[in-house]
Amino acid sequence: MGAWQTLTVEQTGRVAVVTFRRADQLNAMNRLMQREITSAFEALSVDDGVGAIVVTGEGRGFMAGADIKEYAAQSAPEFDSFQAAGTRMYASIEDNRKPVIAAVNGFALGGGMELVLCCDIVIANQYAKLGLPEIKLGLIPGGGGTQRSVAKLGRNRANFLLMTGAIVPASEFVEAGLVNEIVDAEKLMARALELAAMIAAEPAGAVEGLKRLTAHAVSGDLAGGLATERDILGELYRGEIGQRRVREFAEKSAGRAAKAKP
């Protein structure tokens, strides 16, 4: 897939692992890292050999937002270009054909939390902390954080994070539904890989369809979502895997019923 400077992409079976590799900067995102994340996820999205993706960071941080040193040196046109490129980067994760599991190993702040908000499943260790602290710089999130935080957390929780800039333990997001599980640090990657392998083993068309449908549900367009749901289900039912599995289930069910007769 190419040589990377700010991340690595490794594959085991049908699971790809993207690891941010700027540990000395808590994996803060500069322009090169932004380009490489986009390139990696867009390539993985169309790779039929990949069924699920795990994303994590090396060291103590998942991603501590944008690289403020670079951020501060940007001209106005450079800043606008960075934000526009960020829109494409986050879309490469949120709209990826493959489910993306975040293994949050430390701080996920600013752009790092915005990246977490784009993921489909979130596993975190007991030390992980999340936040959208842009208000402390007199700014607001620019990578979709204002919109996705409301969609995934509710407006009041989102307002609290956005308006106070609070940095909150990942455990506090479990009840809200953003974080699925808190896992001991030494078991974090094993659990993320276990989930990814479990999902990647299922029929790719069904998994991709489910991702599209749950994303559609968040949009609030119920009628459109229901219509798309019917269309995808019909395609899967008529497909070779769906036909075979339904037939096998029916045959097993009939066999159990026959054995149960007196």
Describe the 3D structure:
There is one protein chain. The protein has 10 helices and 10 strands. Helix 8 packs antiparallel against helix 9. It is 50% helix and 17% strand. The model has no long low-confidence stretch (mean pLDDT 91). The protein is of the alpha/beta class and 262 residues long. It folds into 2 domains: 7-200, 2-enoyl-CoA Hydratase, Chain A, domain 1, CATH 3.90.226.10; 204-260, no CATH class.
Question: Which helices and strands occur, and which strands form pairs?
Answer:
Elements: E1 7-12, E2 15-20, H1 31-45, E3 52-57, E4 61-64, H2 68-73, H3 76-94, E5 100-104, E6 107-109, H4 111-117, E7 121-125, E8 129-131, H5 145-153, H6 155-164, E9 167-169, E10 181-183, H7 188-200, H8 204-218, H9 222-238, H10 240-260
Task: Kindly summarize this structure in a few lines.
The chain has helices spanning 31-45, 68-73, 76-94, 111-117, 145-153, 155-164, 188-200, 204-218, 222-238, 240-260; strands at 7-12, 15-20, 52-57, 61-64, 100-104, 107-109, 121-125, 129-131, 167-169, 181-183.
Lateral arrangement of strands in the main beta sheet? 1-2-3-5-7-10
**Could you name the ranges where pLDDT drops below 50 across 5 or more consecutive residues?**
none
The whole-angstrom Rg is: 20 Å
Order of secondary-structure elements: EEHEEHHEEHEEHHEEHHHH
Alpha-carbon distance between the termini? Answer: 61 Å
Largest sheet: 6 strands, mixed
Salient structural properties:
alpha/beta; 10 helices; single chain; 2 domains; four-stranded mixed sheet; 10 strands; six-stranded mixed sheet; 262 residues; 2-enoyl-CoA Hydratase, Chain A, domain 1
